[in-house]
Amino acid sequence: MRAVPGSPNHTTALCSPSRSCVVTGRNHHANGMASITELASGYPGYNGQIPFENGMLSEMLLQHGYNTYMIGKWHLMPSEQESAAGPYDRWPLGRGFERFYGFLGGDTSQWYPDLVYDNHPAVMRMRWVFTCAPLWRS
To answer: Is 15 labeled as catalytic in the residue annotation?
Structure first.
């Protein structure tokens, strides 16, 4: 069986557009995700923001009594909306998921990941500062 371009099982060469097709069942251009969110340009189909009228599968399942959880990489919103200050309407909990554990952006450190649970930072990261200054005075 061949995949029809733009159908939910159609994949693109990038993660965000493919993920937007899977969670909405729509073409990545209709989702505004013709590219990854960091390369959004503001042109139609390339703004990096899934319209709210393009319902997500999680929103539909939640309305029918299913529990919905998102684990892992989200990467479906503009980078400037990933801070703890919000807005939270494009975060997973704002798009029909009851719980979320993962990271919001396209990448994160493997040693000090920027993990989020629900709408909160998962852990406070400690950063150690190493200096090359001698410990004695001359």
So the answer is: yes
- 97-to-3, 62, 63 alpha-carbon distances in Å: 27, 8, 11
62: left (phi over 0), alpha (psi -120 to 50) or beta: alpha
What 3-state DSSP class applies to 99? Answer: strand
pTM: predicted TM-score of the whole model, two decimal places: 0.78
Q: Which of 10, 21, 64, 75 is catalytic?
A: 75
To the query of whether residue 132 is one of the catalytic residues in this protein, the response is no
Q: What is the pLDDT of residues 64-120, one digit of tens each?
A: 999 999 999 999 998 889 988 889 999 999 999 999 999 999 888 888 888 999 999
